[in-house]
Recover the amino acids of this structure.
């Protein structure tokens, strides 16, 4: 291609880059919402074979996703309540909150019992059911016991409406009656030895994962907290909700991006300046990499509609690998000296760059096969970025690098030459074989100590303070975490409720055995029609003779008018599920019912509350038709474990795919020599992880895929570059070491990421790239001599 042709190609590529940059800026900042996804659920793969179970898991996770829970604490009861009122009023003034609840509207607790009075004869507890079924049941004794019961301060029925206490006993088992929070002065309050805790809840006017909503809500909360702490000394504020976890995850990711990006950029800049002794190569290397990262960002957002936190941090680390292509072209120019000619230089590096790109794309393609949205996006990001960065070298750099360059700095070249001679010397002949055997023998104990950990919670570690506050709120309020639930399915509403009742019988046994704290389910609030009819049948003999019932009531001290009203209320009406779901009382629990839009079948959710083991919860559902325990975290962990076990097969498959390519390029006899550095680098990395007792995760194995690709690149760069740098021994290996160090400065920094998954990724790459870079001289086809 002529010089004008190079310029024309560079012009077209530059124009496309400008358009791509404008599109990237619009996608990131011009649509009114950030594409950065901080919802951890969105990054996780589907794990349930039953699609309805997957929908239920997402529904449950998002049921309170836009709600925040606050507990105002103070040793002084009045100050705690005043602070809660002030907090509620302050937050309610900000339109970032759709609703804020601190003070409850004045109401009579009897309002909670009124909707159930018409159904009182259909609602019995297990204890009353068992008592009524006994042959010796004494109604007069039951009445006397009810009349002499202590006064009920909570949700209670009037004595004349419920003389036997059957409805009262049933209401005592409802979720609102079991809550540790009780209404005091129109505030939901809990008392502990260290003071009073008052509940304040707020619903966001938008998504917890929206960057703008996050910033506005957190700013409003911080200002309000500072105000109540000033006005009511000694006040503390406990907080939990998806908002705080999403904001913390975003802050950690941004901190990682800045740290990794800044340190790697400065390190790579100093290296390039020191080796090439000119700012020009530095700017061109970063230009090529920046174009690749911009293209990767655009493609990822267009393909996935968003960009995940893992991808965001991973993208900052991609600098160290994408810059390799421009480094090799710049090194070829520096080594050519006065004989430099851009087109000839391009032909010189093209085979190495294309071969290296192919091996890298293979590694990332295997990463993309895992059915994990975050990993697939990382693979898409990397493949696009690497391909475009390589393309920019072909399209842009030849037109911009017409003049010759100064040779590589002599110090790194001499150091690389000495290191290459030393490694090549000790790895050749019988001494090399002996050293290899000793190294492998030393690695065996490390391999033997390898273990694994597939816990999905290692994906991202929540801030300790947030986790502590959530645990305190859960302990004080008695709320469960909802990470596990039962999905109860049936052909219709009645069948679902009956199956849920069978499950709850088993859960109650776990509660009685102190294996479970409680559970939350609709059948406990709206029994099945079959159970309501059975309860009414138990009471029927008592109402068979109205005069006898009237006599019992009057003798117990009830007025005749109240006795007649109670008798005339019999038999009442059954409590209907859908009527109840429309009532205000059902508002907090509607998400537990899942209607089928097609009209076929129905389903509900039952939430166990407490710290029961997964095995015990699974045993409770065993043998019950239509009942499935859904544990999203365990499901994802099992999936991670399954693919981790497959990863070694994928790694072997990747090696086998590379073999014919290297055999075609270098000859079959040299394939073991060229593949030895990355393969041995992987082996020694695994041994080191074993020695430091680092449990293997899926992310370790995915990183080893990249070690294979990157390590093969280094072997290719050395083999392809040495014939063109024969006049300056060590120069080709110096460029390989330069590529390796830039990768270590970027990928290696992930080992200090705040995200455990990326720490695993970074540590593995740090070890793997380091071992491989040191072993690359063993792949050289010629022996290095002193110049």
């Amino acid at each position: 291609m002529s010089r004008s042709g190079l310029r024309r190609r560079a012009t077209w590529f530059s124009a496309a880059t400008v358009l791509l940059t404008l599109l990237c800026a619009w996608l990131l900042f011009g649509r009114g919402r950030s594409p950065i996804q901080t919802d951890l659920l969105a990054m996780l793969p589907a794990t349930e074979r039953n699609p309805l179970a997957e929908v239920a898991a997402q529904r449950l996770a998002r049921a309170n996703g836009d709600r925040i829970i606050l507990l105002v604490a103070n040793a002084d009861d009045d100050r705690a309540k005043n602070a809660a009122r002030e907090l509620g009023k302050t937050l309610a003034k900000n339109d970032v909150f759709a609703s804020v609840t601190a003070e409850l509207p004045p109401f009579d607790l009897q309002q909670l019992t009124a909707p159930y009075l018409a159904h009182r004869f259909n609602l019995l507890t297990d204890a009353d059911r068992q008592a009524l079924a006994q042959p010796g049941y004494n109604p007069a004794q039951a009445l006397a016991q009810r009349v002499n019961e202590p006064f009920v301060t909570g949700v209670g029925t009037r004595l004349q409406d419920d003389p036997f206490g059957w409805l009262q006993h049933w209401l005592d088992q409802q979720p609102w009656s079991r809550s540790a929070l009780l209404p005091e002065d129109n505030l939901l309050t809990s008392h502990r030895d260290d003071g009073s805790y008052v509940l304040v809840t707020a619903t966001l006017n938008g998504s917890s994962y929206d960057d703008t909503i996050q910033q506005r809500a957190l700013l409003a909360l911080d200002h309000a907290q500072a105000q109540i702490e000033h006005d009511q000394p000694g006040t503390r504020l406990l907080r939990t909700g998806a908002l705080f976890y999403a904001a913390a995850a975003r802050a950690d990711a941004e901190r990682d991006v800045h740290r990794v990006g800044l340190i790697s950029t400065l390190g790579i800049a100093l290296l390039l300046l020191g080796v090439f002794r000119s700012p020009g190569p530095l700017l061109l290397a970063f230009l090529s990499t920046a174009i690749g990262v911009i293209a990767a960002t655009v493609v990822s957002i267009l393909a996935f509609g968003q960009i995940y936190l893992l991808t965001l941090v991973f993208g900052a680390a991609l600098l160290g690998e994408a810059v390799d292509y421009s480094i090799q072209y710049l090194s070829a120019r520096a080594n050519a000296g006065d004989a430099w000619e851009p087109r000839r230089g391009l032909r010189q590096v093209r085979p190495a760059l294309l071969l290296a790109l192919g091996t890298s794309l293979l590694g990332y393609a295997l990463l993309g096969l895992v059915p994990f949205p975050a990993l697939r996006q990382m693979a898409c990001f990397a493949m696009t970025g690497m391909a475009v960065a390589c393309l920019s070298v072909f399209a842009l750099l030849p037109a911009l690098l017409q003049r010759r360059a100064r040779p590589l700095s002599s110090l790194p070249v001499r150091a690389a030459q000495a290191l290459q001679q030393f490694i090549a010397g000790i790895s050749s002949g019988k001494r090399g074989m002996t050293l290899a055997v000793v190294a492998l023998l030393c690695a065996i104990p490390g391999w033997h100590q390898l273990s694994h950990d597939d816990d999905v919670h290692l994906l991202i570690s929540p801030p300790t303070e947030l986790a502590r506050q959530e645990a305190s709120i859960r302990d004080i309020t008695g709320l469960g975490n909802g990470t596990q639930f039962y999905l109860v399915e049936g052909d219709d509403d009645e069948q679902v409720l009956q199956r849920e009742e069978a499950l709850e019988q088993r859960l109650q046994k776990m509660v009685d055995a102190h294996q479970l704290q409680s559970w939350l389910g609709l059948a406990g609030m709206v029994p099945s029609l079959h159970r309501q009819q059975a309860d009414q049948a138990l009471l029927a003999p008592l109402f068979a003779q109205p005069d006898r019932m009237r006599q019992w009531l009057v003798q117990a001290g009830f007025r005749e008018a109240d006795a007649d009203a109670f008798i005339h209320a019999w038999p009442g009406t059954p409590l209907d599920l859908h009527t109840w779901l429309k009532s205000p009382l059902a508002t907090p629990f509607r998400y537990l019912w899942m209607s089928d839009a097609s009209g076929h079948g129905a389903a509900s959710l039952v939430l166990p509350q407490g710290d029961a083991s997964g095995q015990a919860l699974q045993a409770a559902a065993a043998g019950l038709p239509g009942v499935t325990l859904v544990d999203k975290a365990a499901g994802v962990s099992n999936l991670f474990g399954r693919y981790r076990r497959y990863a070694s097969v994928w790694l072997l498959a990747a090696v086998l795919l590379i073999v014919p390519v290297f055999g075609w390029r270098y000859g079959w006899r040299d394939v073991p020599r060229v593949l030895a550095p990355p393969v041995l680098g992987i082996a020694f990395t695994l041994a080191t992880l074993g020695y430091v007792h680092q449990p293997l995760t899926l992310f370790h194995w995915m990183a080893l895929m990249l070690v294979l690709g990157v390590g093969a690149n280094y072997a290719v760069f050395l083999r392809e570059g040495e014939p063109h740098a024969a006049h300056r021994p060590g120069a080709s290996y110096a460029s390989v070491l330069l590529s390796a160090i830039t990768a270590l400065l970027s990928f290696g920094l992930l080992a200090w990421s705040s995200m455990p998954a990326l720490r695993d990724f970074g540590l593995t790459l740090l070890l793997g790239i380091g071992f491989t870079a040191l072993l690359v001289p063993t792949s050289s086809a010629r022996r290095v001599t002193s110049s």
Q: What stands out?
A: Confidence is low (pLDDT under 50) at residues 783-787.
